[in-house]
């Protein structure tokens, strides 16, 4: 990543939230002269890459318009070292060691239910719902998209966010099917599977009549 943008991420990680003025002061202290225009340019790129977001305004102590507060997104947080992989793998190993497979599946179904509930997908017709579900899955690392066929929608996920541990914990694949089912309110049928060497995990979402298009 470009060095200045990495430092901006570091600043937001340290402070939680910051305005353009805050970031300019920090960068000047760490690296010398830099303008607010340059900082805004870097912030726009980071927002485009979904690494930061801006949802609040801070009023100035001096006259002038309120300033946006910037903060890291979940994707931005993932740019920093973490121990999530080892924690998740260790937890799954312990579950398999101490519980029968059926109980492990019940727990993972509960995890899928928790994720679906937090997704807060609006209760809209399936044609609209597909857009929300694809956006949610892509935001969480699945790189999702869909197409329509005469038999229904086909949802593709071209990346597996669990690819580092799914080889030894294939039950996560079943959790994904459950998650897709809960998000869409329709039981999907898997058409392809990355674990089998396919380019994506693809699911048929059956509907009565659809028009052919790609999204």
Question: Outline of this structure?
Answer:
With 215 residues, this protein is an alpha+beta fold. The protein contains eight helices and six strands, in the order αααββααααββαββ.
Mean pLDDT: 89
**CATH class wording of the largest domain:** Alpha Beta
Please list the strands of the largest sheet in the order they lie side by side. Answer: 3-4-6-5
> Any idea of the CATH topology of the largest domain?
Muramoyl-pentapeptide Carboxypeptidase, domain 2
The CATH H-level homologous superfamily of the largest domain: Trafficking protein particle complex subunit 3
Shape: globular
Number of helical segments with 4 or more residues = 8
**How far apart are the termini?**
29 Å
Query: Low-confidence parts lasting 5 or more residues at pLDDT below 50?
Result: 209-213
Relative helix content: 40-55%
Secondary-structure element series: HHHEEHHHHEEHEE
Biggest sheet: strands, sense, closure? 4 strands, antiparallel
Number of strands: 6
The CATH level-2 architecture of the largest domain is identified as 2-Layer Sandwich
State which percent range the strand residues make up. Answer: 15-25%
**Rg, Cα atoms, Å:** 21 Å
How many individual domains? 2
Structural class: alpha+beta
């Amino acid at each position: 990543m470009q060095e200045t943008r990495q430092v901006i991420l570091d600043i937001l990680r340290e402070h939680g939230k910051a305005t353009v003025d805050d970031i300019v002061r920090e960068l000047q202290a760490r690296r010398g002269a830099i303008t607010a225009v340059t900082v805004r340019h870097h912030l726009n790129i980071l927002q485009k890459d979904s690494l930061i977001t801006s949802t609040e305004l801070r009023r100035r102590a001096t006259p002038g318009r309120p300033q946006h507060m910037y903060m890291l997104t979940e994707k931005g947080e993932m740019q920093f070292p973490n121990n999530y992989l080892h924690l998740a793998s260790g937890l799954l190993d312990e579950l398999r060691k101490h519980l029968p497979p059926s109980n492990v599946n019940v727990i993972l179904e509960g995890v899928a239910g928790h994720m679906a509930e937090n997704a807060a997908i609006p209760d809209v017709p399936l044609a609209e719902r597909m857009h929300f579900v694809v956006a949610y899955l892509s935001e969480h690392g699945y790189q999702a998209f869909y197409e329509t066929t005469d038999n229904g929608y086909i949802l593709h996920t071209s990346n597996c966010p669990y690819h580092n541990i799914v080889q030894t914990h294939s039950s996560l694949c079943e959790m994904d099917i459950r998650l897709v089912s809960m998000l869409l309110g329709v039981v999907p049928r898997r058409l392809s599977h990355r674990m089998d060497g396919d380019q994506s995990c693809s699911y048929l979402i059956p509907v009565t009549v659809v028009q052919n298009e790609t999204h």
